[in-house]
């Protein structure tokens, strides 16, 4: 395994571990999700460069668009929960309550 693939794999795993283990603030969970999507974007961009095919060259841009939409929706949820509950602590949120 080359050092580049190892570093991309470890960056994705660190984001996944941060999402799984650090569940106190909503903002830290959103940052972990964004780092995972950015790592996937870099990996798919490198993969399309190594394939030299024009048919899959739009795939990284589609993923980048979806990650921007995910970030804007996550920040909207963060603002809504901090206005309604006073903080972004995930322990204070009850998803079963309207």
UniProtKB/TrEMBL annotation:
It comes from the Eukaryota. Its main location: mitochondrion. It is found in: Mitochondrion inner membrane; Mitochondrion membrane. Core subunit of the mitochondrial membrane respiratory chain NADH dehydrogenase (Complex I) which catalyzes electron transfer from NADH through the respiratory chain, using ubiquinone as an electron acceptor. Part of the enzyme membrane arm which is embedded in the lipid bilayer and involved in proton translocation. It is a multi-pass membrane protein. This is NADH-ubiquinone oxidoreductase chain 4L. GO terms for molecular function: NADH dehydrogenase (ubiquinone) activity; oxidoreductase activity, acting on NAD(P)H. Coiled coil: none annotated. The gene is ND4L. Its EC number is 7.1.1.2. It is an enzyme of class 7 (translocase). InterPro entries: NADH_UbQ_OxRdtase_chain4L/K (IPR001133), NUOK/Mnh_C1-like (IPR039428). GO terms for biological process: ATP synthesis coupled electron transport. GO terms for cellular component: mitochondrial inner membrane; NADH dehydrogenase complex; respiratory chain complex; transmembrane transporter complex. It catalyses: a ubiquinone + NADH + 5 H(+)(in) = a ubiquinol + NAD(+) + 4 H(+)(out). Belongs to the complex I subunit 4L family. Keywords: Electron transport, Membrane, Mitochondrion, Mitochondrion inner membrane, NAD, Respiratory chain, Translocase, Transmembrane, Transmembrane helix, Transport, Ubiquinone. It holds the Pfam family Oxidored_q2. Gene3D superfamilies: 1.10.287.3510.
